[in-house]
Design a protein that fits this description.
single chain, mainly alpha, 1 helix, rod-shaped
Length: 38
């Protein structure tokens, strides 16, 4: 049971980190130059 909770929490944390990384990289790319992907 504890393992399941840890797995769920880890998945949520990894998803949040992924979204955070995407936002940061998007801001950086926009700042450095015009982003052709957006």
């Amino acid at each position: 049971m504890v393992g399941m909770l840890l797995l769920i929490r880890q998945r949520h944390i990894s998803r949040a980190l992924l979204l955070y990384g995407v936002l940061i990289s998007g801001k950086y790319m926009k700042k450095s130059s015009e982003n052709p992907f957006l």
